[in-house]
């Protein structure tokens, strides 16, 4: 029996044994359920999660750490059905920084906070054919799960409280706060899987070995302060689900399609210290350095535009190195009685840098003496935020006090693109026979000096919020916020909410909000020329040298672009809360209407051949000075309507002789419809082309599951524990390039089962063995006619990836 099979058997046996042992043992004493208080979605004081006027999920540290994955995004996606976190491949920087979505909205339409302070996004803008195309989002995996006390997820619009980006909701990361104690863990896992070959047969793969070591420790600061530090190191080997290339049987598997290789180090701290006279100083911060190596598309031996046979006689597979440096630091000065007001003065700074290198490659236009490794350039984004917030209760003769809150925030953002080395983008003079040589480093050409930018903007905002309880069962809240941006002007947002308690066990809640999302600097100013790969029926993957141009550039304007304007949103929700005798049920219906959404346009391809139409020749002429053969840019004008339902039910079984059991069932139904697409603009083209056609429309509507649900049971008795979870993913559609839909790709509806067994030894030491995707489920393979090389047999739109079963072991200790 192989070590992998042994681990698989042990994981199953541990869970089975723990269940059997429970039948004959005495139950542990019941522990009192701690009331969960939340601070997200209100500018007043913390309140019970179930008493919140808007739906808030709370995910605690134990739920995050008792999983096989140490990725924060992946852990949230199986805990909260409204969140999706796919695993794309061959998508350049998106392989390294994967975006998450909430309620099917764009990754940049969910605001992320840390300790209730606004966090910065990544410098990356997602450009390739994956979920979240066109967005610049927060990197959830830059935060180690070991650093987190709990996470509050507001599933409702909140622009009136927090400003831009809170269209779908808010994710608030609350760091650990302890002045003593600590913990550490070591997790090892890898994939042990078998899947059908793209061209027949079966493949066994044992890859993706991942080791993670993390720890945290609390310290006293003087007699009344605290300092909590945490750290994590992770090393991940790549996975590969490519098949043998039928074009070159002797080469076998010449591509790589799966998770990248990752090495990352992360550290965080959280601290607080009373200063006297009611003042308290809080500080937090941390950083991560991550090195990701992902693969581009295989360059065939006989492809004269992309390869020089004397250099790579068997072809070659370029690799893209993405070095991500992510840092954040912040502080808050608080006073609970500043002239009668609860006061908070905060400042924080966040910064992300992405450095790109391309290795194991060549710039064909430079000839046989071309380098094989290139520095391709960098992206940098920074954000400085300062805020002041005040709130106070007033007795005005109602059933409860009137809470008045007001505040202001100022923000400065800066974004830059740095050019790569000359060799990475240079157009040389080498001619590979009669074939025009490809320009730039194959796989990821460098940013050119013309792409370099260094831009910034400022915005200021102010808000006022009221919360009242006119009569005992009714709570009301309202907020209004005004913002001014230096690049596009002003915006006003507003929100009203209510909660009515029919009985102590049953309440209704609802809200309505007008919100917005400002165009990101990444969307306004990103520019590059890079290789874009498109599945062309009968040809497989075809390369286009595609230029991405700012909407304000002369090239984009000539094709019909206009300066970007903010998105506007309307949110409505109505729900019910029930809790009694260990059972909690929440049911919330919602509607999210977004107008003027910012999207990446269609790729407009040029050609100078006689057979093409006049538009293609006009594009060719326009793009000649830029070195690109196709163009795209960001545009406004897409309207969407999303309607859905969130359901969460938790039942805590009364402790019995066979132990303690908590059962959670949750689900999300989400239906997004594109109700309007941008009008075809006036441009230099003889017959102006649509900038947002069927493929982009269907990406919006079907890139995340319409239905997603999960059932989880957590059991414990004395030293034993177990978790079993089943997650259902509805079908996802990756639209094809043709209007007839014949080349669409369906992932199919699938159910994944996870299982973990635990034993707690003395002195706080615990061993866990488990399996993710226990039954080795895969999405549907793509049609063979869409990939004749076997390079990518599955769609990157799959909501759970395409790696198969993963086995893991975790050893942890607490003190």
Defining traits:
815 residues, mainly beta, Maltoporin, Chain A, 22-stranded antiparallel barrel, five-stranded mixed beta sheet, disordered N terminus
Describe the structure in your own words.
The longest helix has 20 residues. The N terminus is likely disordered. The chain has a 22-stranded antiparallel β-barrel. It is built from ten helices and 36 strands. It has a single domain, classed as Maltoporin, Chain A. It starts with a helix and ends with a strand.
Overall body shape: globular
Binned, the helix content reads: under 10%
Profile the largest sheet.
22 strands, antiparallel, barrel
Tell me which CATH architecture applies here: Beta Barrel
Q: How many separate structural domains?
A: 1
Q: What percentage of the residues does DSSP assign to strands (E)?
A: over 45%
Here the CATH topology equals Maltoporin, Chain A
In the predicted model, the low-confidence regions spanning at least 5 consecutive residues are: 1-32
Q: What's the CATH C level? A: Mainly Beta
Average predicted local confidence, pLDDT: 91
Give me the number of helical elements. Answer: 10
What is the number of beta strands?
36
User: From the alpha-carbon coordinates, what is the Rg to the nearest angstrom?
Assistant: 27 Å
Give the class from helix and strand content and strand pairing. mainly beta
Q: Quote the distance from N terminus to C terminus.
A: 36 Å
Oligomer: single chain
CATH superfamily: TonB-dependent receptor, beta-barrel domain
